[in-house]
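Demo today. Your pick:
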Amino acid sequence: MTSYLIKKTVSLATVLFLVSLIVFSVLFVLPGDPAQIILGINASPETLAALRIRLGLDQPFWAQYGSWIGSLMRGTGGHSITYDMAVFSLIGSRLAVTGPLALMAMAIAVALALPLGIFAARHQNRLPDATVMAGTQLGLAVPEFWLGILLMLLFSVHWGLFSAGGFPGWNDDVWGSLKALFLPALALGLIRTAILTRLTRSSMLEVLREDYVRTARANGLKESTVVYGHALKNALIPVLTIFGLQMGQLLAGAIIIENVFSLPGLGRLVFQAIGQRDLPVVREVVLFMAAAVVIVNFLVDLSYAAVDPRIRLDGQ
C-alpha cells in the first residue's frame, strides 16, 4: 500500500510539473503585453518598461517560470491584472460555484445511470433495454448547451420555477443558490447519465456471463442478491474510471454551461481571462484544472481496491 501511494504521488507530481511547464511555455509565446493591458494604449514606453521590470517580464523564460513556481509553492500565487486581486482568492471564490455544480451534476448522473444500466442489462434485447438505449443515444446526441437552453425555456420562462441565470451567492441566499445551480447541473448530469448508463449496462452484461454468477444462481440465490451482492461490485471498475474522468472534467470548469446560465464559475473565469489577456489567471486556473483531473483520477485508483478485493494496491 505504501509503495503504491509513493508511486502514485511521484506520478502526480511529475504530471503537474509537465503541465505547468507546457502551460507557461504556451502563454509565454502568445502575443499580448500584460504591462500594456494594465497601463493602456496611451502609456509611454518608459512607463511600460518600468512596469515590465517590476512585474519581472524583462527576465528570461526560466527565471520567470522559476519565480512563478516559487510563488505557487509559497502559497502566494500570482496577481490578477483584470481583477486586481490574488489569483488564489479568485479561484477559491469561483470554485464555490463550480464545485457544488460538479457534485450536483455527478450525483444526478450516478443516481440515474446505475439503476438504468442495471435495469437494461437485466432485460437485455427486450423492450425495456431498447427503450433505455434509445434514450441514452438521444442523450449522447444532444449538446449540453442546447439542453441547458431548453431547460431554461421550460422551467424558467414558461413555468417560472427557476431563475434563468445568475447566482445570488451562498452567503446571501443558500436556497436560491441551490436553485440557481439545479438547471445547469441537470443539463450536465443528463448528458453524463447517457454515458454512464451505457457503460454500466455493457459492464453488467459482461459480469453476468461469468462462471461465479452462474454458480450463484445455481445455488438458489435470489436474482437481486446475485446482481447487487455479487455482480455489481465487479462491474463498477470501468464505471468508476469514466466517473473519475467526468468528475475531473466538471471540476475543471463547464465553460459553455456556465456562460449559458451566467454562473461565476471557473469555466467562465478562464474564458474571460483569455479574452482579457489576464495571463496570471489563465496560468493558474489551467494548472488547477489539470490538478483537479489528476487528483480525482488518483482517488479513483485508490477506490478500485474497495470495490474489487481482487485488486491489490501493492502490485503483488
